[in-house]
Amino acid sequence: MNEIRFDALLPQEMATRAEYLGVRKAEMPFLKAFMLSVLAGAFIALGAIFATTVGAGGIAITSADGAAAFNTGLPYGVIRLLSGLVFSLGLILVVVGGAELFTGNNLIVMAWASGKISGLSVLRNWTIVYIGNFIGATGTAVLMFFTKQYMFGSNAIGIAALRIAVAKSDFTFIQAVALGILGNALVCMAVWMTFSARSTTDKILAIIFPITAFVAAGFEHSVANMYFIPFALFIKVFDPIFIQTVAGKVPGLENLTWQAFFFGNLLPVTIGNIIGGAVLVAAVYWVTFLRTSEA
Predict the structure, then answer these.
(1) 20 to 30 A Cα–Cα from 135, which one of 102, 172, 225, 230?
(2) Interval 66-101: pLDDT, tens
(3) How far from 19 is each of 47, 105, 112, 117, CA to CA, in Å?
(4) For residues 96 and 161, what is the distance between their CA atoms, to the nearest angstrom?
(5) Distance separating alpha carbons of residues 125 and 121, to the nearest angstrom
(6) Is residue 148 part of a domain?
(7) What DSSP designation does 251 have?
(8) Domain for residue 6, yes or no?
(9) DSSP 39-63
(10) Dihedral sign computed on CA atoms, order 237, 243, 244, 248
């Protein structure tokens, strides 16, 4: 008679579950994988929207007549902590709601290393999901542009969005890769720990601290950046009046371009994310728990 257990799965069992889920994801039909990946891009964008709104709390606001100004007075670290905490919404929606996220799917490497799926299947899944994530995240950015939510708080949200994008566009290539490695190592650790969960509450608690840490520390996530930077670019390109109003509060705005987004941020961060997720998490746990002498 099988013993009924209610406690969390142990790491060895988590590794077996990760391997099983990797096979399931790699064999998922195209349309299902694509639709779920679009959802995941939108979910991460919702977390980014939440984080941008909370992060705007550190922006100094001046009244229309210029007579008064105020800010929250919260230290940089506290603003980052709060932003990271609310950004956790994105991965919670992905894991609990059910969606396909490129960075989390780097864990599929465990099934490939065990010989249960081919390298081509891994690349197929990553390509479908990456494109779907991009559509979902940038599509959400388009929708957010039309809401004009960036004008809320006396333009504070828009200023915060532009500053975030400018900062992300200003990394060197190696810096962006390194930040991407650390970012997805934490994201994949969050996903990895949800494999031990027995309930929705377990999953949420497993997600919150790693995701809060990666955002608070300023690490990089390719799918999140598919929202952060295009959203700011849409504001810059299609609302010149707003840009004229806030330009003095966003140093380096001229460096925010589509070229900087694709080649200065998205490319190196994606490379870093793959290294962080597939190597530092998936490969390490595969060697530890699943590698056999035959393998």
Answers:
(1) 172
(2) 444 445 568 889 999 999 999 999 999 999 999 999
(3) 28, 11, 8, 10
(4) 27
(5) 6
(6) yes
(7) T
(8) no
(9) HHHHHHHHHHHHHHHHHGGGS-EE-
(10) negative
Asked if the structure places residue 295 within a domain, the reply is no
What letter represents residue 125's amino acid? N
pLDDT tens column, 18-59: 999 999 999 999 999 999 999 999 999 999 999 999 999 766
The amino acid sitting at 184 is N
Distance, in Å, from the CA atom of 91 to the CA atom of 44, rounded to the nearest integer, reads 6
N-to-C CA span, the chain: 32
DSSP secondary-structure letter at 8? Answer: P
- Token representation of residue 188: 């994949």
Q: What is the CATH number of the domain that holds 257?
A: 1.20.1080.10
For β-strands 69-70 and 61-62, DSSP reports them as: antiparallel
Return the residue matching tokens 């849409």.
234
Domain count, the chain: 1
Q: Answer for the pair 230, 261: CB distance below 8 angstroms, yes or no.
A: yes
Q: How far apart are CA 122 and CA 109, in angstroms?
A: 7
Instruction: Give the range of the structural domain holding residue 16, as residue numbers without chain letter.
Output: 11-62+69-289
Q: Tally Cβ neighbours within 10 Å of residue 107.
A: 23
CA distance 166 to 253: 6
Report the DSSP beta bridge partners of residue 61: 70
| Residue 69: strand, helix, or coil | strand
What single letter denotes the amino acid at residue 54?
Answer: V
| CA separation for the pair 170, 165 (Å, rounded) | 9
In a domain? residue 3: no
Closest C-alpha to 270, from 63, 103, 26, 125: 103
